[in-house]
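Exercise 7. Given the encoded structure of a 212-residue chain, write a plausible sequence.
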């Protein structure tokens, strides 16, 4: 058995980035990818299951689902095998969660009845989705002149095979390095030590080792 867990496996990815004990790693990871004007300060993991309304419809089980102290919501999905309709899947996942924001009934402020909170979908892909050399792509609602219309829906696609930066400089590049190499370096020593602790398979429970 290897000493460290591969973050590009479903189990390894969730153990590292969906661990309630180490939300600072999740925060550092999402902040590095999004580079928000107002960075995430704290997060709360949400229920991963979004069941269908009836047996004829499809429900969703997210890899990572959380919201921050500002109410912004984050969906993170790891996809290792190539999936032709991953963009369609991304839209479906986001729309399913978006639909759950609006509750029946009146709000205290009528004009905010249809107010939606921002949702960020981050897809970590171990395959090439687009026909270019860009390893990261950020998408939101814009008009034909590329003017931003709305910031509610945000899609970020990270294609790991295209990431070939030899000397990572910024936080995002250093975070993505963990998916390309057996070891990595990130700015905060504390987060690095936590990473080593939670990925050390010799410290996993018997049940977790079986899953691994």
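Solution.
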């Amino acid at each position: 058995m290897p000493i460290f867990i591969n973050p590009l496996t479903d189990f390894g990815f969730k153990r590292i980035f969906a661990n309630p004990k180490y939300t600072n790693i999740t925060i550092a990871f999402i902040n590095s990818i999004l580079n928000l004007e107002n960075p995430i300060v704290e997060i709360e993991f949400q229920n991963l299951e979004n069941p269908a309304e009836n047996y004829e419809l499809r429900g969703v089980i997210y890899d990572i689902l959380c919201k921050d102290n500002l109410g912004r919501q984050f969906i993170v999905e790891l996809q290792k095998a190539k999936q032709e309709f991953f963009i369609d899947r991304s839209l479906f996942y986001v729309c399913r969660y978006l639909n759950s924001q609006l509750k029946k009934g009146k709000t205290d402020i009528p004009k905010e009845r249809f107010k939606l909170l921002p949702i960020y979908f981050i897809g970590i892909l171990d395959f090439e989705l687009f026909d270019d050399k860009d390893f990261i792509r950020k998408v939101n609602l814009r008009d034909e002149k590329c003017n931003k219309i709305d910031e509610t829906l945000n899609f970020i696609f990270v294609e790991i095979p295209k990431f070939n930066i030899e000397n990572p400089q910024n936080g995002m590049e250093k975070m993505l390095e963990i998916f390309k190499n057996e070891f990595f370096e990130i700015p905060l020593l504390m987060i690095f030590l936590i990473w080593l602790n939670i990925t050390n398979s010799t410290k996993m429970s018997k049940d977790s080792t079986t899953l691994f």
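Remark. The chain has one domain: 10-211. Students should compare their own answers with the one above.
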